[in-house]
Fold:
Amino acid sequence: MAGKLTLDELRQAGKKGEIDTVLAVLVDMQGRLMGKRMHIDFFVDGAWAETHCCNYLLATDMEMETVEGYKSTGWESGYGDYMMKPDLDTLRRIPWLEGTALVICDVLDHHTKEPIAHSPRAILKKQIARLEDLGMKAYMATELEFFLFKESFEEAQESGYRNLTPSSAYNEDYNIFQTTKEEDVMRAIRNGLNGADIPVENSKGEACAGQAEINVRYAEALSMGDRHAIIKNGCKEIAWAKGRSVSFMAKWSYDAAGNSSHVHQSLWSLDGKTSLFYDKDSAYGMSDLMRHYLAGMLKHASEITYFLAPYINSYKRFREGTFAPTKAIWAKDNRTAGYRICGAESKAVRIECRVGGADLNPYLAMAAMLAAGIDGMENKLELEAEAQGDAYANPDAREIPTTLRDAIVELDNSKMLRSALGNDVIDHYVHAGRWEQYEQDRRVTDWEVQRGFERA
Ligand code: ADP
Structure:
């Protein structure tokens, strides 16, 4: 695939003057790339084996606030170092940045060299290892929606992110003419990602003015997490370079649609040749194993919601009649259901979880879903009957938490997630969630001021 590099190929590219910079990055709790820009000589001489960073990178909030109260680090322990261990399988060119390559690093304890349990990549790797023990691997695809604006990030910031102009005039769902207006950015994104070892399937317009979706080919779960993190960063960088801005907020405006990250998933034999979700003789081609996996996802839907919707803003997306599902039910090819069956009757039969927003951390979301699915398989949970019709209008359908506050309680109380991910890991993210809630609880919003300033 274009863009993938071995260490040796990187060396050669350096000698030819094609690459002079290597980004060594980890993925933080928010799913962002954080790290250093290295001179290629420094990287190939030795930094390819390890580098370091401050351990607060896995204990800050969206705004890099040094949140107190984490067990793993803090002012008391002096915010020491983590070791960043480049995963050379992720080494690739970044075509939209001149002379640049990128590698994603695992986060290890500086002294013991053990993985940091609450680092997003380690959390996902643990669930992948559990699957491997069961003789399976997961193929995943995390679709990403976002808004593209005519303003640059700097202009958007200056205006307080108000009165922004979406890149197209009206609902552009599948609309070729509207998306033609965005081709200066979207074509660069598609081709850029394709040249960075991320095979793009397509981009398309979505159901609001200025809203786009990018779809890339499914991959093993860890690779998909890496792709997702690079796609988000890449879309921002490419838009920025063209004097434009994008937003992956779950809901950037009351009047606009929300941004989703639907997650397609299927389980396969370790050699990747046999779909374990497919049984040609069963309804919709769904194997018993797939039914158990899905039953696990539904049973634990409330507990995993935090990892699909980690911020206050994430819950603003869950509105009836918006294609953002509020009900944890399953159905074939029904976009009002939280869990949709796609590719029925074929080897591509899979589950699409439609609950998550584009603000989710893909590693955490995939890990939580796998943990729920594994629980379903291990306990051979029985799948309930398929939901019929409009899920929004079904009063009996299982609800997922509709506020962050409720989702944190569900996360905290989840025996399944505590056992699968580890107590310290859950405590870490419960703390992150509570901080997010606390920050919101004490803020005065624009809406409150406009509503009450004169009238209260
Ligand atoms: P949609 O109707 O949601 O747009 P698509 O057919 O475009 O569905 O596929 C969406 C995503 O599902 C793509 O990223 C594709 O690579 C991925 N996908 C296809 N087959 C599988 C599979 N067996 N397991 C996981 N993801 C898959």
